[in-house]
Amino acid sequence: MKEKKILLNERDIPKQWYNLAPDLPTPMQPPLGPDGKPVRPDMLAPVFPMNLIEQEVSQKRWIDIPEEILEILYRWRPTPLRRAVYLEQYLKTPARIYYKDESLSPPGSHKPNTAVAQAWYNKQFGIKKITTETGAGQWGSALAFACNLLGLECKVFMVRISFEQKPLRKTMMRIWNAKCVPSPSQETKAGRDILKRIPDTPGSLGIAISEAVEEAVTDKSGKTRYALGSVLNHVLLHQTIIGLEAKKQLKIVGEKMPDIVIGCAGGGSNFAGLSFPFVYEKINGAEIEIIPTEPTACPTMTRGEFAYDFGDVACTTPLLAMYTLGHAFIPPPIHAGGLRYHGMAPLVCQCIVEGLIKPRSYNQIKCYESALLWARTEGAICAPETSHAIACVIEEAERAREEAKEKVIIFNYSGHGLMDLSGYENFLSDKLVNYSLPEEELKKNIASLKNLPKPKMQKSGKW
Amino acid sequence: MKEKKILLNERDIPKQWYNLAPDLPTPMQPPLGPDGKPVRPDMLAPVFPMNLIEQEVSQKRWIDIPEEILEILYRWRPTPLRRAVYLEQYLKTPARIYYKDESLSPPGSHKPNTAVAQAWYNKQFGIKKITTETGAGQWGSALAFACNLLGLECKVFMVRISFEQKPLRKTMMRIWNAKCVPSPSQETKAGRDILKRIPDTPGSLGIAISEAVEEAVTDKSGKTRYALGSVLNHVLLHQTIIGLEAKKQLKIVGEKMPDIVIGCAGGGSNFAGLSFPFVYEKINGAEIEIIPTEPTACPTMTRGEFAYDFGDVACTTPLLAMYTLGHAFIPPPIHAGGLRYHGMAPLVCQCIVEGLIKPRSYNQIKCYESALLWARTEGAICAPETSHAIACVIEEAERAREEAKEKVIIFNYSGHGLMDLSGYENFLSDKLVNYSLPEEELKKNIASLKNLPKPKMQKSGKW
């Protein structure tokens, strides 16, 4: 019998997060302020609590996970490592396909791994309220879940069009005691300004970020901070528990090291969570192919430029050195809302520049075909984002069959699709189209970056 | 540290189902045909495959689970036994509260435990296609899931009003390769007759059952059968894997025997699945309080009559000896669609008559209050049906506090509520009302049974 679930007991959960930053061959390019000078940690203090800022800039390889955070993670962690034996059989592949099942958290994705940690550190720092933005709602509901458990107030600015299209995401947040308002709202200056200019705007993540940050920094009590669900170093750090658990679980079934590691990447956190502990092995000599995947409709890593750019449309964040399609880029309305971001986590981008990982892109219909094959073989319904990892898994499993090679593939099953079934309905009814970014639009967007500072980093080309 | 999840390895899964029938103090009252005579097994052959009919009438205490069924169950079983430590803390109760988490199956409830078994036995018998009805959609999607895994065709008649209100349940079934049509449909005589008389009918479970049975028995190839998701003996049998796993898991954490066992009951299968292995212990001398719970809006067990009645509104099924509100009873539109049934599994009813179990009823608002407290302490969002178990758990945990007694409570967490968030939204917006069945309506419905045969069974009063 092939074991289908490799379980880990609570006592075997990793007790430290893994920080990739100190192990990178070339040091990270620093975030820059509006003056082009590196941002000092204290400049971020009105936005984030100092203990998280310390993690953001930390050069320690291992960072202890506080016992109280572990106690909360035990509610659903360690997550099982599963083996996709039915997909293997269907594909007649000699590859062994494993996946970390992050869909089992109460909000249904990997997001609470960092939501819980961020809420806890905020509480430690004396913060009473956290603000954030959300697009499709995965992150907003994860933060609502975490804040509720820790007794913090939570306010989520949800992009208006999503707020209206996905009213039940708001219900999830209400169940967990959070306040969720459509953005732009009348509750911030940024929101009111937009509404005055464009009363019927559908909203955007860029506007929602501006509102959430404004509400945090203008709270006179000083007890409110802002939280981000991906992109930043400390967010990726909190997700590494996924890959660290996976390593222990692979050992249990006698697999030495995977040949291929795959994760979808929007801001980069679920990909980094699984892969960074394996990037560490690669830096130390292991031969592993590590692949972040993205939509052809929003091809940040595969067609974007490595450049300094803003994290938001309104140009209010520090400049980050990352692959970007330009901060003004508005992605087409693909169903994988979590992969519609113009930038990418700087840590992930530096791995690309260093040649440690190699991104690929997939179009929407191929991803839904992969998701459907997954549901009909393995049985579970994946999130539209996750289907971008599965498309790559299938590609690699078929390659292994053609090459007749016994490969070990592992990927991150970042979330279930039960809140996103309308995309499947459209796919099954032949109503989906593929998008790809026209070259001239890409060039125009990238050109908008020409007056910004340039990263000094060289390609190391070492790998 | 209190262990929050008690896991069981695949190799420790129970290898046999437990059949309560031979252990009951008084033999079961037989199902009767339209002539008032006991139904012979061969009379059911056009509806169910003979191997399942044999299970339906079996008097063997232990029935082997075929290895191939176990192989499929391993996809999500054994399910964790969890401890609700946060609810305990909130209630300041000395009770230890455990629950089997059946929400982890791909369709999100306990239903696939029997859907997989039924599909497998049908396939063994040479059947190519299974028909069924579904109300809210839990059962229909579970059967779709199972048939897809086994390569059987599946057709689901979904009550029209639910088909329109919950279009995404249909999407789930389509993902798993099933055909789901609104009932009444043009595809059966029963459906066409109703549509001719009442073109804009919202449909009902009674009509949908008639359509599904008709489509099965009129298939000239003889390769189509009908499947039911609850009520019948063999359906309850397949669910006993829940309680058998729970017993092993309680032993792992050193709990000898629970003091209280709780499950919600619509047709009775999730309640029976957890509780029957403990009913066995009670028959053999253990002191356990066993409580099936139901809505005050549909108080079958607490206010219904123990009588022979039809399983459907159209009076096409055999007569079953059970607690019933009368087959003509139309329950009010509470959100717990799975608990809106006028009858109850005969095995569960006989346990009530014997005094082995004691039902309770809860109103809708109390149940949502309990569900909300659950989500805000334990973190997960439960199905509206499951909230009827949680309401009772909270009541008993509070009683334990008042009595200062260290009790062990276990209940069945039958499913998640992610497909039913609109009920929560209504609750949070103060739009819910409580229903209770007026005494005169109850009397009128019960009176309609007066010309049917009466069960000969006496109350044993032994317990």
Named CATH architecture of the domain at 63-108 and 233-449 in chain A: 3-Layer(aba) Sandwich
Q: pLDDT under 50 segments of chain A (min length 5)?
A: none
Label the structural class of chain A. Answer: alpha/beta
Extended strand count of chain A: 15
Strand order of the largest sheet of chain A: 1-4-5-15-10-11-14
Name the largest protein-protein interface in this structure: A-B, 39 and 39 residues
What CATH calls the topology of the domain at 63-108 and 233-449 in chain A is Rossmann fold
Question: Rg of chain A to the nearest angstrom?
Answer: 21 Å
* Main beta-sheet strand count, sense and barrel state of chain A: 7 strands, mixed
Report, as a whole number of angstroms, the end-to-end distance of chain A: 38 Å
- In terms of DSSP E residues, the strand content of chain A is 15-25%
Oligomer: homodimer
CATH class label of the domain at 63-108 and 233-449 in chain A:
Alpha Beta
If you average the pLDDT of chain A, what whole number results?
A: 94
Fraction in helix of chain A: 25-40%
**Counting H and I runs of at least 4 residues, what is the number of helices of chain A?**
18
Shape verdict of chain A: globular
Walk me through the structure.
- Two copies of one chain form a homodimer.
- Chain A is α/β, with parallel strands linked by helices and 463 residues long.
- The first copy, chain A, has a domain at 63-108 and 233-449: Rossmann fold.
- The first copy, chain A, is 38% helix and 15% strand.
- Chain A has 18 helices and 15 strands.
- In chain A, the strands form four sheets. A seven-stranded mixed β-sheet of chain A has the order 1-4-5-15-10-11-14, with helices on both faces. Chain A has a four-stranded parallel β-sheet with strand order 8-7-6-9, sandwiched between helices. The first copy, chain A, has a two-stranded antiparallel sheet with strand order 2-3.
- In chain A, a hairpin with an 8-residue loop joins β12 (305-310) and β13 (319-324).
- The model of chain A has no long low-confidence stretch (mean pLDDT 94).
- At the A-B interface, α5, α7, α15 and α17 of A face α5, α7, α15 and α17 of B.
